[in-house]
């Protein structure tokens, strides 16, 4: 409890009123995942509750040495502008093609929802912010794992820059393909949850999510969405696609 209070009440995070009531996990009821009650997602109840009970909210996923870096396949969508690859979105694919052609100079990350100062960030803006590099193991739900080095800005720093409102509970990540995802504040504010623009010391390659992808090191691979275009902070949980397509919303590792 006191850990969470510390984690969530740091300077600068709130752009609205001082009360943090909406963010604190108070009592057992709040330890249930937002998917509670969905019969198809009963497993979430156990994994979410157990993980939250067993692990500190700030506990770090293991980090590796440079010598541990392995090859990593680009999977799922490998280029959102290609109609034949992965989860192509006809509404976003052409935009992605145009931005890619311009070396992402015109790309912006929109940040909106329950925030005091909605706005957008260019790649250069994000690269000027707090930077974190981490070498971690990616674990895909299909069974393979790979180790890579990721460099980016903590989601926390971006949320501090826009100021989340005290009622804010979830952070949604929207992409240039048909993939989207959301995190609760514990995972969104975790120090290893970063928006990565670098991989293994270079710019993030297209196949791995250029120009910006999420890295959520304490959850399974599909939560680390690639090709980001928009972040929406919400007060209530909305299914961004996991549940209607049969996946768990919470999948801690
Ligand atoms: N936008 C988007 N993000 C995505 C995917 C995708 O198809 N589209 N695939 C997910 C899955 S299942 C995995 S395992 C990882 C793969 O990351 P990689 O292509 O960098 O190996 O990205 C995840 N993020
Ligand atoms: Mo995956």
Summary, kept brief:
This protein has 253 residues and is of the alpha+beta class.
The proportion of residues in beta strands is 15-25%
Secondary structure class reads alpha+beta
Q: Please state how the strands of the largest beta sheet are arranged side by side.
A: 2-1-10-5-6
Number of domains: 2
CATH class of the largest domain: Alpha Beta
CATH superfamily of the largest domain: Oxidoreductase, molybdopterin-binding domain
The low-pLDDT segments are 1-11, 16-29
What would you note in describing this structure?
With 253 residues, the chain is α+β, with helices and mostly antiparallel strands. It has helices at residues 2-8, 42-54, 93-101, 123-128, 155-162, 185-188; strands spanning 109-113, 119-121, 132-139, 145-154, 170-175, 180-184, 194-199, 202-203, 213-215, 228-234. The strands form two sheets. Strands 2-1-10-5-6 form a five-stranded mixed beta sheet. Strands 3, 4, 7, 8 and 9 form a five-stranded antiparallel beta sheet that branches. The chain is globular. The structure holds the ligand Nc1nc2c(c(=O)[nH]1)N[C@H]1C(S)=C(S)[C@@H](COP(=O)(O)O)O[C@H]1N2 and molybdenum atom (MO). Molybdenum atom binds next to loops.
């Amino acid at each position: 409890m006191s850990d969470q209070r510390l984690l969530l009440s740091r300077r600068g995070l709130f752009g609205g009123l001082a009360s943090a009531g909406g963010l604190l996990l108070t009592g057992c009821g709040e330890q249930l995942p937002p998917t509670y009650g969905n019969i198809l997602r009963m497993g979430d109840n156990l994994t979410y509750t157990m993980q939250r009970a067993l692990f500190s909210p700030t506990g770090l996923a293991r980090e590796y040495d440079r010598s541990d870096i392995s090859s990593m396949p680009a999977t799922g969508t490998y280029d959102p502008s290609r109609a034949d690859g992965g989860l192509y979105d006809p509404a976003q694919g052409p935009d992605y093609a145009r931005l890619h052609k311009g070396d992402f100079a015109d790309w912006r990350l929109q940040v909106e929802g329950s925030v005091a100062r909605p706005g957008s960030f260019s790649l250069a803006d994000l690269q000027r912010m707090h930077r974190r590099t981490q070498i971690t193991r990616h674990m895909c739900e299909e069974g393979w794992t790979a180790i890579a080095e990721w460099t980016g800005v903590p989601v926390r720093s971006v949320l501090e820059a826009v100021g989340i409102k005290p009622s804010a509970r979830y952070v949604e990540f929207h992409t240039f393909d048909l993939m989207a995802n959301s995190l609760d504040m514990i995972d969104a504010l975790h120090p290893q949850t970063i928006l990565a623009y670098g991989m293994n010391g270079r710019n993030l390659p297209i196949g791995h999510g250029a120009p910006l992808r999420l890295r959520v090191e304490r959850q399974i691979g599909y939560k680390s969405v690639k090709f980001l275009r928009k972040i929406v902070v919400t007060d209530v949980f909305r299914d961004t696609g996991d549940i209607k397509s049969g996946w768990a919303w919470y999948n801690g590792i």
